[in-house]
Amino acid sequence: MSVAKVTEIISSSSKSFDDAVAEGVKRADKTLNNIKSVWIKDQKAMVKDGKISEYRVTMKVSFVLKD
Q: How far apart are CA 32 and CA 5, in angstroms?
């Protein structure tokens, strides 16, 4: 039997929402083992001088705990 845990993280990128997700997963993988999925809870963009300056995502990361 496996047991999973879910943690919420916020990640950002100056490129895109997709890049923000990828960077968040990449960073989470350094600390969390056995990541199985991510669920994007929220997206928002920061605006500066009429242009998008930063893409932000709030995501829930699911990972399986070691026995």
A: 10
